[in-house]
Design a protein that fits this description.
four-stranded parallel sheet, alpha/beta, single chain, 1 helix
């Protein structure tokens, strides 16, 4: 697990899909802070995971997004 300055803040879209769920789990295991943008709830519960429910195909409010991220997936 990474800590301190090595920790990344990651925004991932589709975090409840097959690929996205695997990547989200890997990021959390590394100690990263993850914001998961999904259409509905995600099966993972973790202290470093923030689930942002929104459908990108419709109008949505960007104010729910984090102010700063290191990586967007």
């Amino acid at each position: 697990m990474r800590t301190g300055t090595n920790t990344k803040t990651v925004l991932i879209t589709g975090a409840n899909g097959l690929w996205g769920l695997s990547v989200t789990r890997s990021l959390l295991e590394r100690g990263d802070r993850v914001f998961a943008l999904v259409r509905d709830s995600v099966a993972i519960k973790h202290e470093n995971l923030t689930v942002l429910v929104s459908d990108l195909a419709t109008s949505w409010n960007v104010s729910s997004l984090p102010l700063r991220v290191d990586v967007v997936i």
